[in-house]
Write a structure and sequence with these properties.
Strand content: 5-15%
Low-confidence stretches: 278-283
Largest sheet: 5 strands, mixed
CATH superfamily of the domain at 93-283: OmpA-like domain
Mean pLDDT: 75
Distance between the termini: 118 Å
CATH class of the domain at 93-283: Alpha Beta
Order of helices and strands: HHEEHHEHEHEH
CATH architecture of the domain at 93-283: 2-Layer Sandwich
């Protein structure tokens, strides 16, 4: 009887141990999943924080420039006010002098309006660029930053795609994978009817000559035109809004002394151009 009782206790202990181990493994699995989700959220937060800091720096520079212009206008207004007070004490003001004073005051009003317009246009441009970058990142998905990188610099949006995603080594024929990537970019660009952009081909500094390709200049140009043709023929982007250019080896983003640097330099860059004509119109002198 005692032996049976001992065996029963052992069975209960073993069963309890198995259940606890199973619960422990389930908890470990849930914990690992939560850590993975937390890491992804932290990475997304870091990306957004970097973009925010870059915009804050640009806005601070613009505000400093605007403050300087406003200070100059205030100084001019004060001088003109003093000049008018002095003229009031004179018995006679010639018609030419009066007209000159009137024009000076009108010009100051024009400058005030110009500053306001520039400030509004710059704020609108930065907002549109940020929205465009977020749309591109959302369309492309979680690709390695070494293969594709999207950034804003001085009001211009850049999309850098490594050559290994688009072409075979020494070739300018678009791969199947590249066509898929370009399709995602085209989906976003197609919704922006007024956007103009340039496709640039870039190489490393290794001398190249093969078949009908004469050198790195030739390779970079043909790669740029190959991308433009896909965007036009397969994804129906307006050819009037596109430019193809070859940069050869002369605009590197990395050093050509290491394999990593060479790989970074071998890329295709899509440059989304700002609407400069809008800013030039703001700077035009009003017609008399």
């Amino acid at each position: 009887m005692r032996t049976k009782f001992i065996l029963l206790l052992c069975s209960v202990a073993m069963l309890s141990s198995c259940v606890s181990t199973k619960k422990f493994k389930n908890s470990e699995s849930q914990l690992a999943h939560q850590k993975s989700q937390m890491t992804k959220v932290q990475q997304d937060l870091s990306t957004c924080e970097g973009l925010r800091k870059g915009n804050e720096t640009k806005i601070a520079d613009l505000l400093a420039q605007l403050a300087a212009l406003k200070e100059q206008i205030s100084f001019l207004k004060e001088n003109n006010t003093q000049a008018l007070k002095q003229l009031e004490n004179l018995s006679v003001i010639s018609s030419s002098q009066a007209e000159s004073i009137k024009k000076s005051m009108e010009n100051m009003g024009i400058k005030d309006n110009m500053i306001f317009s520039l400030q509004s246009s710059l704020a609108q441009r930065d907002s549109l660029n940020m929205a465009l970058v977020m749309n591109l990142k959302g369309a492309i998905g979680n690709l390695d930053d070494k293969d594709i990188n999207i950034k804003v610099d001085k009001g211009v949006v850049y999309i850098d795609i490594s050559d290994k995603m688009l072409f075979q080594s020494g070739s300018y024929n678009i791969t199947e994978r590249a066509s898929e990537i370009l399709g995602k970019v085209a989906t976003v660009l197609k919704n922006q009817k007024s956007i103009e952009f340039m496709v640039e081909g870039h190489t490393d500094n290794v001398p190249f000559r093969r078949g009908d390709l004469l050198d790195n200049w030739d390779l970079s140009v043909k790669r740029a035109t190959a991308v433009v043709r896909v965007l036009q023929d397969k994804y129906d982007l307006n050819p009037a809004m596109m430019t193809a250019a070859g940069r050869s080896e002369y605009q590197p983003i990395g050093v050509n002394d290491t394999p990593e640097g060479k790989a970074a330099n071998r890329r295709t860059r899509i440059v989304i151009l700002p609407q400069l004509d809008q800013f030039f119109k703001l700077l035009e002198r009003p017609k008399k």
